[in-house]
Amino acid sequence: MIGYTYAAPKTAGEALALLRKNDAQAIVSLQHIAEFKTIKMDDAGCVIGSRVTLSELKQHSASANYPALTQALASISDPHLLNHTTMEDSLNASDIELSSVTAALLAMDADVVIVGDEMEEKYAFSDFLQTDLTHDELVAFVRIVLPDESTSSYENAGFLSGSKPICGVAVARQKNADNTLRIVLGGCTDKPVRLQSVEAALAGKELNASTVDAALEKIEGEPLTLRKDLPIGEDYLRHLIKALTKKAILKL
Amino acid sequence: MKLNFHINGQLHSGDVDRHVSLVDYLRDSVGLTGTKVGCGSGVCGSCTILVDGKTTKSCRLLAMEADGSDVTTIEGLAKNGELHPLQKAFWEKNAVQNGFSTPGMIMAAAELLSRNADPTDAEIKHWLSGNLSRETGYQQVVEAVKAAAAEMRGEGKTTTEGPDNTSIGQSPKTRKTRELVTGEAKFIADMSLPGMLHAAILQSPHGHARILNVDTSAAETMPGVVRVFTAKDTEGVMPMPVIWIPPFAESHFLPHPSGIVPGSHSVFAKDRVRFVGDQLAAVVAETRAQAYAALDKIKVQYEALPLVLDVEEAVKEGAPQLHETAPNNILIETVFGDKEATEKAIADAEVVVEQRIYNQRLMHNTLEVRGVLAQHDPATNQHTIWANTQIPYPHRLLISLYVLGIPYNKMRVIVPAMGESNGCKGNLYPDTPLVLWMARELGRPVKWVDTRAGFARNTAQSRDQVQYVTIAGSKEGKISALSCRALSNVGAYPVINAPGQPLALIGRSITGAYAIPQACYDIKVVYTNKVPTAPMRGSGRAEAIFLIERAIERFAREIGKDSAEVRRMNMVPKDQFPYENGLGWTYDSGDYETALNLALEKAGYDDLATQKAEASERNKLLGLGIGSYVAVAGVGNSAKMGGEGLMSGTWGSSYLHVAPSGEVAITTGAQPHGQSQDTTFAQIAAQELQIPMDYITIQHSDTDLPLYYGQASYGSRSLSVEGAAVQKACRMIIEKARKMAAHLFKMPLELIEYKEGKVIGTPAPEQAVMTLQQISLMLWFGWDLPEGMDPGLEATSYFDPENFNFPFGTHVAVVEIDRDTCAVDLVKYVAVDDFGTVINPEVVRGQTHGNILLGISQALSEETRYSPENGQVLTDDFDTYSIARADWIPVLELHRTETPSPSNPLGAKGAGDVSNPPVAPAVVNAICDALSDYGVKHIDMPVTPEKIWQTIYQDKAS
Ligand code: FES
């Protein structure tokens, strides 16, 4: 108890100033930074503050534009988790409890905005996952581009064990000429991963049960690192991945 | 660091260590113990509070994170003494049983209603899926949330007033519930005494190992540590006793120094650990955190020994041997029924179906773990423990006589408010006498409250039986024989009543609701390196009913007949009661077929083909399963239980005392832990004595109460045995009052009537009339008593039924299985139960919900898993051991028929755990029905989507 200081700055600037001191005995709460707690919508899309809770996001009208996100949020039933998880928490790709949201963000190609000493930098979420923040940098916002139409979805296997989403698939149609899909698997992998071979196999194809089945054959070639601590066996898990991917795609 | 925040509207400031969780801070530093701790890992929801109005699991938040916020706990919900609508509604809708999960549920629901004024059932269940309720179920909770919502919308009114009519068959409000909905009730973890120390107990990391050395030196120097105890300190403490020794079977128990009963494990393992819950040392420190911190510093050197976890392996030649007294690890071996005649009937039968069934190992996994607070007064040599046990009187007897060797009259056991038990709190565990012994050694009160992980290792588990079942009969469907060869996994040591479940409770029950001419049960009870097993809700009857209900289903399919029809053909007909089932039970009364028909009708059985076709269009496989049952209850004739081997009486007892004020106090031998005997027993007494229920107090939970001995609550016995004793005591009181009145009125006894709480001389009813209070006053004065009559108006009654009672019924489950993911969705559930005369239908409804919930959970999810490498329990939290959540459960449709039991004057049959046995077979039968097109015959529980997938796809592929 001795020697710790606690501060709850109200602005990003104040927070960064405190963080720059790099004092191991200082506890800096980022809960009260107003600018990180807002959700803004414009024609281009949505900017979600890093301190926005999943519960606030779920209740905000903006989330309705992103079915994968809405469905991912709906799959989390525990209100504690929704109330106490921030956008930034859900960028932590190794947290299985939040893998639904993480997978949805990755499928929707979200960007992560970092602020630091007089700088602001934007990373694609997939790049952000490879980036280590320094002690005086903060995640400020997550940006998601507004899709033209409702073209994303999320499916997961509930009722398997405990409270964790052990296998979920998010799919989003990209805003490009081919309308290619981004397909992301989460929960059962160390971090959410794109099923790029399946994406490639479906490029330019009409989406129906047989094209999807055929494309899913390609999963066998994906170098998936499946978690070892899951309560189900690998054979069934691989089946489930296919079954859920198919459901998610055909739901589009 | 410094904290400032509002708690229940009051500004609070304090100092807190940065590692302290909010729940610990609220409970230990602020003294708000209404918020409970069930898991400490964010899964169970018992610790739910509101932080800035938001549902928060306070075990998952650090206290310092609450700085500056507005915290509301259950204590802050009632305003100006007026309960919150949710608190009232939970009470009114009987959503509260033992009450441990109630504060968390109410707090979570509070946020829901602040966001959504009119939530649907599905929304409520979804929202509450982070709040577990093991024993109460969820349906009444959902009803309560809806009722509270209606009141908050101004569309309805909940009330704390009960109905005027409290007679038998009515549902007055349950007593002692206000303190449960407000968080004021003190459970064991909420208690403290001045000068109290805290204990932590070290368990073995190995399932089987030799202990080479225990080094406590580092632990002893840790901050706050008062003493560290090991086996060398407890030489004088005797091992746990076993009090169930079947006289008819070959058995191989361990010795006990008393020479009277056999023994079991000791407070500390001496030279060898045989399961991971074996205790090695205990630290006693000033705080709980200090005790656990020091525990980590104890160094134990082990030499790992070969393990055996599986019963079939354990009996093989060359298997590791656990106890010298038990060759081949066999504790008991015996046969029920006529094996030779059964084998002959099978050999002669047209159709024979065989099935291996593994009834998996379950954990009782009560949300409240076990705990003990003990105190010794050296001046008087008085020993007192407070413990959340189902069996306070047996604790007093067994600890004083067989473990610590202290005078019975210097030992007192008190049970505080207690969470659910599911049976696991009905044993004597080594930790309990250990804590008392340590308190005496140290001269200060000592408290020990287990952890969730500790509970998974030291607290009895259940079921775990391998069964080889053979059913035989004619092509028309008449069953001629049933045999079961079984191996029961009793774990490393027998707990006090371990033999009861695998022997009589299963062995005499396997024919279920059917008249089967030849049946036998051949059983080996086997030691392994697993946690000891003991009865669990549905105990024994659950294993028996599962096997017969699966077997009859398999048999019906084999002969191509409707399984409902095969059941009808074989059920004990209603004109055959009392019916001897050939294995030792005499079924008391019943109409099994009516219950079956009613359940099928309500479930839409005639329409099944259409339902299947409709589901198929949605890519779902629909199946319907039946579970018919008869379950022995009401323990229950002491001589019969003695014949089974129980070294104890099983009569019911009560002491009734009418004070000079006219108030009635009844001490019962029952030990409530969520069953509402405070209410139902008062209803019985109010009806018998014809006085308002408010005049009557029911007492229990303290061995110093004026009762010779209480045989406790287990195996659905309370109402039909202990309740019958209450009724008998009331009748004794009336008798004495009439005699006194006859004397005072100078009239013959036959002319004295007892009516509406008064004694009336019928020839002059206006003049010769006295209330019970007036009579009790006259008896208290003792001025003018009839010849030979003692003063005072009191009675001690005993009731020992001539027979057990046999509740029965049929449950029907309808499931849908997703063809792609193989996920199982329970879409409909209908239960028809017959509990004989029901005192309080709402109370019984709540218990039935709890039974069904557990059965569904066993069928679909629960299983205790062990590491094959070291015998560790792998399922030691609520994530790895997954119990049914609110959103798994459809609306449960409950119906009752009412066939009184002739076994007791109330006509009551057991209810508390008896409706569990039909649930798991109904669900598994439904799954197998859904998969019948795939030729699936059986899938062992828990029937997970993975097992279904393996059965219908993978097995086919290979
Ligand atoms: S104690 Fe906090 S969720 Fe179980």
From TrEMBL, chain A:
Keywords: FAD, Flavoprotein, Oxidoreductase. GO terms for molecular function: FAD binding; oxidoreductase activity. Gene3D superfamilies: 3.30.465.10, CO dehydrogenase flavoprotein, C-terminal domain. Pfam families: CO_deh_flav_C, FAD_binding_5. Residues 1-149 form the FAD-binding PCMH-type domain. This is Carbon monoxide dehydrogenase.
TrEMBL record, chain B:
Residues 1-77 form the 2Fe-2S ferredoxin-type domain. GO terms for molecular function: 2 iron, 2 sulfur cluster binding; iron ion binding; oxidoreductase activity. Residues 159-172 have a biased composition (Polar residues). Keywords: 2Fe-2S, Iron, Iron-sulfur, Metal-binding, Molybdenum, Oxidoreductase. The keyword Flavoprotein does not apply. InterPro entries: 2Fe-2S-bd, 2Fe-2S-bd_dom_sf, 2Fe-2S_ferredoxin-like_sf, 2Fe-2S_ferredoxin-type, 2Fe2S_fd_BS, Ald_Oxase/Xan_DH_a/b, Ald_Oxase/Xan_DH_a/b_sf, Ald_Oxase/xanthine_DH-like. Transmembrane segments: none annotated. It comes from the Bacteria. Residues 153-177 are annotated as: Disordered. Belongs to the xanthine dehydrogenase family. This is Aldehyde dehydrogenase. The lineage of its organism: Bacteria, Pseudomonadati, Bacteroidota, Cytophagia, Cytophagales.
